[in-house]
Design a protein that fits this description.
- With 107 residues, this protein is mainly β.
- It is 14% helix and 57% strand.
- β3 and β4 form a beta hairpin.
C-alpha cells in the first residue's frame, strides 16, 4: 500500500512511472499514481495479493530490481531503477508491464 509518506521515503523527488497495461502505453509522475490510488486503507483483497522480488543487481551506487505482482485484478512486473544517496537507496524510475487477467466464466 503506497502513501505519500512511503513515496517520499522510497523515491527521489517525483519519479516517472512508465510502462504498458493491457497493451496501452502509460506515463505519469508517481505523485499522480499515489493521489489516484492511495486511500490509506488496506485493500479489501490484500490477503489475495502476492509479491516477489525476482532479482536485484547492484553496480556501485546504481541498482535495478524486478518485482512481480500477482493481484486478483492485475498481474505485473515492475522494473525499478535505484540510486544510492547519502540517506539510502531511492527509486528514480519505475517501468512496468501489467495486464488484467481474463475473467473466469461463471458456470
Amino acid at each position: 500500500r503506497y502513501t505519500p509518506e512511503t513515496v517520499a521515503r522510497l523515491c527521489e523527488r517525483n519519479p516517472n512511472l512508465v510502462g504498458y497495461k493491457d497493451g496501452e502505453y502509460r506515463q505519469r509522475p508517481a505523485s499522480d499514481y499515489i493521489r489516484q490510488s492511495s486511500s490509506g486503507r488496506v485493500p479489501a483483497d490484500e490477503a489475495l495479493r502476492r509479491r516477489w522480488i525476482r532479482s536485484v543487481t547492484v553496480t556501485g551506487d546504481v541498482a535495478t530490481a524486478v518485482i512481480e505482482l500477482d493481484y486478483p485484478d492485475m498481474k505485473a512486473q515492475d522494473h525499478m531503477s535505484l540510486l544510492r544517496f547519502d540517506d539510502g537507496w531511492r527509486i528514480v524510475v519505475k517501468a512496468y508491464h501489467a495486464f488484467t487477467p481474463a475473467a473466469v466464466p461463471r458456470s
